[in-house]
Amino acid sequence: MEDQYSGTIIVENLSKVFYIRKRKQGILGSILSLFYAEKYPIYAVDNISFRIEKGEIVGYLGPNGAGKSTTIKMLTGILMPTSGRILVNGIEPFSNRKVVTKNIGVVFGQRTQLWWDLPLYESFDLLRIIYKIDSKEFKKRLEEYIELLGLESFLNQQVRKLSLGQRMRADLAASLIHHPNILFLDEPTIGLDILTKDVVRKTIKHLNQQKKITVILTTHDLEDIEYLVHRLILIDKGKIRYDGDLNQFIHQYQKSKRILIHLEEEVKLENSLNGYKILKNDMNRFFEIEVPMDESVGNIINKIQTMGGRIQDITVKKQELADTLKEIYKGKEIELG
Ligand SMILES: Nc1ncnc2c1ncn2[C@@H]1O[C@H](COP(=O)(O)OP(=O)(O)OP(=O)(O)O)[C@@H](O)[C@H]1O
Ligand SMILES: [Mg+2]
Hints:
- By secondary structure, the chain is α/β, with parallel strands linked by helices.
- The protein is built from 11 helices and 13 strands.
- It has helices at 26-35, 68-75, 97-101, 120-130, 135-149, 164-176, 194-211, 222-228, 246-252, 297-306, 321-329, and strands spanning 9-21, 39-52, 57-61, 83-88, 104-108, 182-186, 214-218, 231-236, 239-245, 256-263, 277-282, 286-292, 311-318.
- It is globular and about 75 Å long.
């Protein structure tokens, strides 16, 4: 049954406050803390709102401790919000956890949701029973995921004995076996080698494009973002700092570009390049400079040639997502749109 909420995530004024006991020093202090516990609040998620439509794939980014996992846990019904409203597929997740779980898939890269002691195949079979999936249909789905994620060689292995990369692919398959229409991924590529990352990314993209699954993804790997995501939601200290188009985000903050110059032979360029920030000068043959975005590269080439420099190679590097994020994570007050 398709309704207007199918595949959507709606978050309104959502907050989560944790109360932490203040520890007093010394043994007496510890004892006193038991009775007179002073508590202080941590605003892990601080009044955030957004709406994700069916079929969107959204990158949920932010530095360590920003509130990403806390948000995902509230969206999937694991944690109760302190205040605010969540609708996932039109359902409030915390008080309807069983119902909401039927149509969502969740992967926490840091821990498995499979049965540690069972062989992988039996873990899947248990999910078949839990989700009441028809046997024939189950076989068909499992075969598809075995193929997509390359699970064949370790299906009979105990989950606890799987390598991290094998376990992560298995977890992803497990999160999909009941055909959810929304997928929540909290660091699904953490600790994976480049080939396994590739398999995971391609699977996520495939599911999003072919099956129109809505995806919300947290990651510290910016290649995940560049490969998968069009929309970025940036959270820092529990507050949303940006919500919008990824490319626009990168362009909006691009104030400078870096130019890498490789000369055929050494020439002293320091004087003619003054006015630019020289980031590197290696034996007067390799230079890396930072120039304003609107500075003409032709102009720079002219200056070099005037000094007698013969250019073997020149590369222009625009500011990347990583550079922009670094500035924001460092706490610079960049005006975010
Ligand atoms: N159960 C808890 N009790 C107390 N504080 C918590 C709890 N869970 C999270 N926090 C605090 O809430 C804040 C947000 O944590 P969260 O795990 O959501 O961050 P994150 O954005 O997922 O970070 P990371 O990138 O490191 O995974 C942190 O300051 C964290 O210490
Ligand atoms: Mg986290």
